[in-house]
What we know:
Layout: H1 3-16, E1 20-22, E2 34-36, H2 38-57, E3 62-64, H3 74-78, H4 81-84, E4 86-91, E5 98-100, H5 101-127, H6 133-139, H7 141-162, H8 166-175, E6 192-195, E7 198-202, E8 210-214, H9 219-223, H10 226-232, E9 239-248, E10 263-273, H11 278-294, E11 303-307, E12 317-325, E13 328-339, H12 341-350, E14 356-358, E15 363-365, E16 368-375, H13 376-387, E17 388-394, E18 400-406, E19 417-421, H14 428-439, E20 445-447, H15 453-463, E21 467-471, H16 473-478, E22 480-485, E23 491-495, H17 496-507, H18 510-513
Parallel strand pairs: 3-9, 19-20, 19-21
Antiparallel strand pairs: 1-2, 4-5, 4-6, 7-8, 9-10, 10-16, 11-12, 12-13, 13-16, 14-15, 17-18, 21-22, 22-23
Helix pairs in contact: 2-13, 5-7, 5-8, 7-8
Bound molecules: glycyl-adenosine-5'-phosphate.
Amino acid sequence: MSQEDIFKKLVAHCKEYGYVFQSSEIYDGLGAVYDYGQNGVELKNNIKKYWWDSMVLLHENVVGIDSAIFMHPIIWKASGHVDAFNDPLIDNKDSKKRYRADVLIEEQLAKFEEKMIKEVAKAQKRFGDSFDEKQFRETNPRVLANQQKWDDLHERFSKALNDSNLEELKQIIIDQEIACPISGSRNWTDVRQFNLMFATEMGSTADGALKVYLRPETAQGIFVNYLNVQKTGRMKLPFGIAQIGKAFRNEIVARQFIFRMREFEQMEMQFFVKPGTELDWFNKWKETRMSWHRALGFGDDNYRFHEHEKLAHYANAAVDVEYKFPFGFKEVEGIHSRTDFDLSQHQEFSGKKIQYFDPEEGKSYVPFVVETSIGVDRMFLQVMAASYCEEEVTSSNGKVDTRVVLKLPAQLAPIKLAVMPLVKKDGLPEKAREIIDDLKFDFKCQYDEKDSIGKRYRRMDAIGTPFCVTVDHQTLEDQTVTIRFRDSMEQDRVAISELKGIVSDQIGFKKLFANLA
Ligand code: GAP
């Protein structure tokens, strides 16, 4: 099955099992806006908890805040978003479709990369264990030719981005013969900038209402509260402020389901440090964040760092954590060394002194900032893509069929335990309810009595429930149940009194945190 087909199945699965719905679906939907269903909201909350606890529980010097979505409009002038939060757009004149010029070029780069990966995979198959990938990449003419094309394009593209040279971006698209995926034509308009912020009006006065923006990132809410938190929390450098909240961007190319949305959620942490120490902290957070991703056990090879083509004018280092989605390696998280740009800008625009008095140095300065920024929804998609499996299984009567299973880490699974009476009579439903009543204070349980046990197991596999227990007639006699494990499908007979311990052992974040750098 192609990666594209797998992705389509994943999207359908998200809807069928109550994870993600198109927003306003009964009115034919609203582009790039999504709602989370009964299972989706639980998974999302668990992802947020995994992040929040890893920041504010594990780090004594990281605290949280929850700032408002609406902020004074001058904040966005100071941060540079009013003037420079733009995407370079290009339209195809035949299909009338709009694209991001930088994304079209990135996709072209990915094609060269894909060709090299295919050559390597073919050779690996041919030579088996004796295959030396490094030597092959350095000598194979087809790989070398594609590498050269990649290097040339990459250099030209980076320069065009750094110079904000829109004509050059268009020229690259023409020279690379990039065609519109819809019309297939190369009939392009010029590239122009488009601001991504949504604006609205607040209040109504005789002089007119105030134009306010829906925040395009949560970070500015942290910067403008730096002094409040530092003073009231008596925080000493280095320290961090973490926040989870909604952000809004009028994305033009809103594709790939919840990968790029117009309303989404971010988990951001700004770490304030002494000037001159920021690159050490940048490297520390880079490693910490990568280990947070890898601790989930989806395979280390599926993650990589991607250095930015273009450093924002205020940054002195920036890297993305990328995951291998079915549509290729893509950004999940950004780690940026933002220097003292934001705090200095707010100091200038507000006219208020935003500094830290360093008792060791005996002087005040504007702290430097290292930021970690991850999208909740993008992380959600990453977890779903990594967990979705189709497996061939053989039942006891020898029949082979396919089971769809979400191999979610137990810590993130929406429902931890399903409790199923074997039949809907003889006191078994009552016993099942009794078990749930006892365990529901500890974790999310679900009662299920409809259909055969086999069908119920499959339903829970598809939702990603790590444990199912079946209550049968023996349960009434000896207080034991059959517990079935999602991934191995193995079954065990255990005492009801053991259930809490078995499940709790697997769903706590402590095990994941033990792996963090
Ligand atoms: N404060 C820095 C900042 O906002 P960013 O790279 O623009 O940096 C950070 O965004 C993260 O937010 C991204 O890595 C991604 O996970 C998520 N994100 C950004 N735009 C998004 C969108 N339109 N839809 C979903 N997630 C998005």
